[in-house]
Amino acid sequence: MTTAAPAKQFKVTYTSNNADMGEFHRLFDEALAKVRREAGQEHPLYIDTKPVRSSSEPLVDTSPIDTSFVLGKFAAATVEHVDQAVQSARRAQKAWGRAPWQERAKILRKAAELIRERKWEIGAVMSLEVGKSRMEAMGDAEESADLVDYYATQMEENHGFVRPLGKLQPNERTQDVLRPYGVFACIAPFNFPMALSTGMSSACLLAGNAMLYKPAQDTPWTGLKLWEVYRDAGVPAGLFNFVTGKGSVIGDALWKNPGVDGIVFTGSKEVGMHMYREFSKDWPKPTLMELGGKNPAVVCESADLDMAAEGIMKSAFGLQGQKCSACSRAYVHKNVYDAFVGKLLEKSKALKIGDPTQKDVYFGPVVNAKAVKTFEEAVVSAMKGGKILLGGTRLTEGAFAKGHYVAPTIAELPLDHELFRRELFVPFLSIAPVDGLEQAIAEGNKAEYGLTAGIFSAKKDEIERFFDEIEAGVCYANRKSGATTGAWPGVQSFTGWKGSGSTGKGGCGPYYVQQFMREQSRTVME
After folding, report:
1. What pLDDT is attached to residue 1?
2. CB 181 within 8 A of CB 96
3. Spans in the chain with pLDDT lower than 50
4. Whole-number pLDDT of residue 362
5. Of residues 117, 142, 143, 290, which has the active-site annotation?
C-alpha cells in the first residue's frame, strides 16, 4: 500500500493539534525506514537536467544525530560547473519567460501536489539531515507545498501582473507588465532546507526566471528532493540547476558570474551584506535577502505567565534554537520576573532530549560542530557577568556520544551584556527583568536585527504600543504556540527589518513574487 493517499487526509503544521497522530507516526516510521535504506548513495550535480560528475572530493553528508551515519556523498562543484549551470539557465529562461504565466502556474502547482505526495519521505530526510523533530520536519514539508500554491495564487489573482494603464490620446493603449529579470542564484540555509528553498525557487520560477540552486552544505539530500520534485512536475530542462559544493570554493562564483541577474539568499547577515555590497557593480541588481534575527519577547506585568513561559520556551528551543525567528532574549516585568522564571525553568526542564526521529522527542542536536563551538563560546561569555539558570553543557554521554548535542540553556544577564545583541543560532535564551514596557521596547530595539518579536499582555493598549514601536517585521501577541515563531504562507508575512532583510517585503506574504520581476510600460498607438 502506498502512503500517498493517507498523507492527504490531514495537514501537519509546526503546531498541529488536530491530526491523527497514530496515523502520523505510522506513516513517518514507514518513510524513515525507507530513507534509512537509501542512505549512503553517491549523487551528482544536475545541470540542464543531466547528471554531472566532479573529480573533486565529494561532500560527505552525515547526520548530526549520529555523525558516523553517512546519508550520502554529493558531488562538489567547481567554478567551471557553476559557469555551465549559468549558461544552461540563460538558454532555458528565454522560452520560459515568454511562456504564458498560466502554463508556469500549472507546472508549479503540480510541484506542490508532488511535495504533498512525498512529504513523509521528505520529512524523514530532513529529520535525519538537520536533526528536526517529527513535527518540525513535517511542518517544513507541508509549508513547502503551501508556499508554491500561495505564490501561484498571487500570479492568478494579479492576472500575471499585467494591467491596463490610462491614456492621453484616444488611440493610445498602454499596459503595465512585470517581466522576469533572467537568472537568479539561490543560496539556501540548512534550518528550513525544503520550505525556504521551495519558497525562494517557486516564486522565482513562477515569475519567469531560471535558477542556479545551491542547497546548504549540511542539507544537500533535502535539496535533491526538491530538484526531483521540479523535474517530475515538468519544469523544463535547464531552468533549475542543482549545484552542491563548498561555499569556500563556489560561494562567490555563484553570484559573481556575469550571467546572474539577481540573488535570493537566506543566511547570515555577514555573508548577505558581503553579497549586497559587491553584487551591483555596474547597475543596481535585485538582492532579495533574509538575514537572521535576534528576536525579543516581552512579558508584561498583566501577562498570563503560563502562556508566556510556554510560548517563549517553544520559540527558544524549537529546532534547537536554529530558526531565524527563534526567541533568543526575553524582557520580563520585574514584578513578575521570579514567578515567570520559575515557570519557564519548569517547562524547559521537562523537554525530552534525544534522537529527534523518535516520536516522543522534542529537542535534538544542533546541526554541526561549528554550532557546538558557538554554543560553548556563548556559555563562557554568559558566565562573565551573568548566571546560567539552566543547561550550559554539551551532552556527550550514552546516546548523545556520536551527535552534536547541547543542553537547552537559559542565562540571566545584565541588560548591557553582549549576548543580548549577538545572533547565536543555538538553543540559548538570555533573560532579564525590566521596569516596564517602555524599557522593554527600548532594549528590544537595540539589536541591529528586526525580524520577529512577541509580547504577552492582557492590555490592548500595551499590545498596540508594542506593535507600533517595536522594530520588527513579524509581530505576535499572546502566542502560546510560539512567542516569536511559526509564520505560515498567507497567514503571517515573514519580513525582516533593519539587519534582518534587504527589501522590507518578505516570504509568505502578498508582495513576494513581484520582487522577482521588473516593471515595463508598453504603449501602442492604434
Report:
1. 33
2. no
3. 1-8
4. 96
5. 290
Query: Tell me, what's the pLDDT at 12?
Result: 78
Cell output for 270: 555577514
- 223-248 pLDDT tens trace: 999 999 999 999 999 999 999 999 99
| Residue ranges of domains in the chain | 41-291+505-525, 295-491
Confirm whether pTM is higher than 0.70.
yes
Residue 324 known to be catalytic: yes
Quick one: pLDDT at residue 170? Answer: 95
Burial class from Cβ neighbours inside 10 Å (0-12, 13-18, 19+) for residue 358 reads middle
Question: Any idea which architecture 295-491 has in CATH?
Answer: 3-Layer(aba) Sandwich (3.40)
- Superfamily (CATH H level) for 41-291+505-525: Aldehyde Dehydrogenase; Chain A, domain 1 (3.40.605.10)
Distances (CA, A) of 277 to 74, 271, 419, 497: 31, 10, 27, 17
First-to-last C-alpha distance (Å) of the chain: 62
Please report where in the chains the cell 519580513 appears, as a residue: 495
> Active-site residue 157, yes or no?
no
Q: What is the grid cell recorded at 109?
A: 502547482
Residue 511 vs residues 53, 453, 460: alpha-carbon distances, Å: 39, 21, 29
Distance CA 133, CA 162 (A): 43
Count the Cβ atoms, other than its own, within 10 Å of residue 68: 8
Residue range 497-526, pLDDT digits in tens? 999 999 999 999 999 999 999 999 999 999
The catalytic position among 324, 327, 462, 471 is: 324
Place of cell 524582557: 331
Say if CB 290 and CB 214 are below 8 A apart: no
